[in-house]
Amino acid sequence: MLNLVESKSILKMKGSVFNDNENDRIAALYQLHILDTPPEEDFDDIAELAAHICDTPIATIAFEDNNRYWFKARYSINISESVKKDALCCGNIHKNEVYVIDDCQKDAKYADNIFVSGPTKIRFFAGIALVNDEGFLLGYLCVMDNKPRHLTEKQISGLKKLSRQVVNLLELRLQILQLKKTKEIARQNEDLMNSIFNNSIDAVIVTGGDGIITQWNPMAKKMFGFEPYEVIGKDLYKTIIPESDYLEFLDRMKNVEFNDPNAFSNKTIEVTAIKKDYSRFEIALGISPVLIKGERLFINFANDITDRLHAVDKLDKQKEFYEKILNALPTDIVVFDPEHHYLFVNPVAIKDETLRKFIIGKDDFEYAAFRQRSPETAQKRREQFLEVKRSGKEMRWEDTTLDPNGSPITSLRRLFPVLNENNELIMVIGFGIDITDRKVMEDTQNALFKQLSVQNTQLIDFCNIVSHNLRAPLVNMSMIVNFLEETNNPEEQNLMIANLRPVITNLHTTFNELVESIQIRQNLEITSERIKLKNCLQRTLVGLKMEIKSSGARIDYNFDDAPTVHFPSKYLYSIFHNLVSNALKYKSPKRSPEIQLKTTISDGNILLTVKDNGLGINLLKHKDNVFKIGKVFHRHPDAKGFGLFMTKTQVEAMDGRIWVESTPDEGSVFFIEFKHQ
Fold this sequence. Notes:
The structure is a single chain. It contains 19 helices and 23 strands. The chain is of the alpha+beta class. Helix 13 packs antiparallel against helix 14, helix 15 packs across helix 17 and helix 17 packs antiparallel against helix 19. The longest helix has about 50 residues. The N terminus is likely disordered.
């Protein structure tokens, strides 16, 4: 049912055709608030007048609901409603026409109707529709008799006029209801405003456009100490503002007042006020200009903010105190709100004050865009923040970045969530500690430990190689010395000395190679550089020119995927020399040597492969000893077991990896992985 206040005029008759939208018709009827209401004298009078005009004993005013006719007024008939199918008028009355049945018993359509054949024994019926201005059928004005009769033109005209009076009465009734509703709402609003005015937690003071106080609520009395009669009729500013502050207050009020009433806006100013006992305190004075019945008024809301200002001042001092502490700490500290916006950043985190001010209230993506940096770091930090927010638990990790000089800086970082009593996230605090020096020390310690471990292994290998590779030369030297001591023949002595020289040379060479292999692990300061693989290989091939020519070897290479590596040049040349020379040295007697070198990239690392078609290695037999010092796999006069050991040592010294795949009499493929590329 529609609200009375929102209702519009809906009842004046016009046109000659009904509006057939049933839902809208029912809505229009309900809008009148007429159904099932008590009898009203005005409607009863019209029904009685209709009966007198038509000289009938019965008259009704009925309204058509969904499935019934409800009688608002009835004259000389005791029926409150009837179903629609039993009505004599249903579907037969047209707009602005009086529908007449002179004798219902003689009309085949109505002879069996319950009102005709039943106790009421209706013989005569006349009715006219009640229609609103939108053409909706609302109901009927009807007259009836228990005997046949005929209406005159005057009676029909009178019935039409009465039907219009019913519609007008409905219009008037609706307006009266609307007026009552409006008055009730106004009264309720007035009561509500009075209640708000008298029970407001703020002091409410109403002044005219000239600043004269017209109303003073109980909270104003409590706040300022004045009774209403003491202040009503006085200037507001002379009542609540200290005399020394008059000019400043009036100057600030200029920003509140407007000549154009439509330009009024609410303002709030903070001022010093005075009580009846002349004590001063701070208030927030909210000023709301209004127009009431063309009169310009100001509603002033005063709120004591003394405690708040003291609290704010205390908080500001505490904030300043804590910020001084946080800014003085040697760690970088940041604070985020629950949406990952920066609330605080100390100078260790961002040294540039302009950038520190810029980032407050923003997130890492906005900061990265401002600094024209990749959003990848911002995305990673967002994911870490969301994980802390989701889990409610702190997170720790190590983060490495580069300083302006390109040197790595390692920080130990921590995100710590701060939750309230409801376990809701208030903020997230981030800490960062520079542990670069500690990481350098740890790396140095790990390198030293690794070096000591390797040296221990090498010492054992050194002992083994000394006992193996140096024993025979020393025995030969001892035997030659014994021969020298036993002979006095100069020719024999010269022959012994001549035999002694190659033994000493071989011993010296073996010793130097052994010492060099051990020193590789001890050299922690060897520097890497960007090397072109092609140039290094060409240098190697020049050094092996005679061996390549005499063996008829074919050497192919393809370094297109990774043409350079970051590696010590001395080591890379040695690696190429050992692998290529071994492929030539251990060639198959059945075919000419073929050596293929190639580079590929995998997970940011460079993989070098060196493939040959030589004798190969029995990995089932030598699987764990391929790169062991002094290990040889084929009989060869120059085989000493240093080449692969040296290569492995050089690769692993730079945190690389080497392995081999091989099939006897088919060849070998050596794989070297260069990391950190």
